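Standup notes, protein team

Yesterday: finished cleaning the Pseudomonas zhanjiangensis set.
Today: Type 4a pilus biogenesis lipoprotein PilP structure.
Blockers: none.

Input for Type 4a pilus biogenesis lipoprotein PilP:
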Amino acid sequence: MKSVRWLVAACSLVVLQGCSSDSDFSDLQAFMDEVRARPKGAIEPLPKFMPYEAFTYGASSLRSPFQPPIKIEVAGRQKGSKEIKPDETRVKQFLEGFNIEAFEMVGTLANKDGVFALVSGAGGVHRVKVGDYLGRNYGRIQAIDESKIDVIEIVPDGEGGWLERPRSLSLKERS
């Protein structure tokens, strides 16, 4: 048992001798001297931040860059008339609250009451007939064919008059 104690004591002395040897701490001592030499209380000022400026997108009402530009010739432009104007007194139908570009013709139906067209858009498929209104520009359905719907829109000419503009919705082929 005594020999084990002597062995542990000898190992402890060797380990303590290794800790007490003079190691080279000159780089650590130089760093500490540099830190101590700095002036007390010298804190760098905070950087100046620019205030946030809100950006308002102003081109939302302009033509989409993904649509081709419309060329309007001023000399050849149609003049509207005062006789043509929309009926402001009638009650608007549901499909008049949407742009006509949002609709696609998807089929036709025929029964004893007549021929109907099926248009997809405005959250579903709707059945329309000749005389119904479609789109925001007072578009009235003039004819329904198996392959298209003919619509006449009444649009302002920009000078106080109104123009009738024919449009067609072609049958969308299933792909």
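Follow-up from PR in the comments: Residues 46 and 127 are 68 Å apart (CA to CA).
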